[in-house]
Amino acid sequence: MITRIQSLSNHFYADITQVPSALQKKHLPSLDGLRCFSILFVIIAHVNEYNAALNSESIHYFFGGGVFGVHYFFVISGFIITTLLLMERVKTGNISLKHFYLRRLLRIFPLTYLFLIVLIGLNGPFHLGLPFPDLAGAFLFIKNAGTSSSWYTAHYWSLSVEEQYYLIFPFILWKGGVKTYLNVCFLFICLFLCKNIYEHYSSSPGGSLQAIADIFLSSNFLSILVGSMTSILFFKTGGELPRVNPILLTAAHIGLFLLAFFSFRNPKLFGLSSLLSSCSIAASIFLLIRFPYGPFHRVLNNRLIAYVGKLSFSLYIWQQLFTAHQPWAQTFKYGNSIALNLIFLAIVAYLSYNYFEKPFLKLKERFK
Question: Which residues, 6 or more positions from 40, have their beta carbon under 8 angstroms from its beta carbon?
């Protein structure tokens, strides 16, 4: 028994030498579909929560203020980023951090900075009252380090989490290899669980140390790391599982979604809530890539749904102007119309992706 455990441990920590066939596709199926539903969660939650005409308690409960949708984005991001880094390591024998950071810069910075420049342009005529600390925090991707006083840059907290992950964890994978990376991930998860259990039973505030722990031991980093470790698991196993009946596969996806939803931020689960929710999402991603068939797969790969998923980053950045507190709400008739603003959002996201972001995405391909 001990020998068997040791053998499994050695295999799990061994370096990765080949790319599973399911990950060799240029485009991984279903992930854009997941992004589509994730961004819809965010948009519906914001429209409901910040417009007095709606504000339905049931919608608020189901969509969780939009954070549950971002939770999906984090797990997907961790999976994809780690997959790309490991593929590069297998094919070239190394990871080019320079090219990695150039690709991330070309994907994220142009649109995020364009949005901030647009906000500054709107600040004068519409009197948005943007505080300098808010803009500075958004420009520097440190919005998760404090409370946001401006609605218009509040969503940059999630971008800050991602950028901080990019700065730290790919470096660990490059420098220390898979074994060190996994050990750091396991250590993070243990510290995260200890922190959450301590907070649940402690009645005294933790001061500055607590504030630092809240940033670096957050459930958001946990979600990204779970997605990342799922990618490593896929490489280790090759995704080798017996073929599953499409009906059972669909039932498994629905069950995993419900488990992720009902466990997400469930106070009765202490620190396990985010971990359990992230693992459920990660398991669903694993199954979607390993078994690209069934009704659930067909829905996620519907052309319209997949295309909305491609626009998800654009939609996420621009939605803050259109879902609530629209600067132009009182400047013309129907300026605060939810339907009209959502149409504007769709148009702006489409134009943004096709005529502003695509040139940078094409440039990004040069650094693969």
Answer: 69, 308
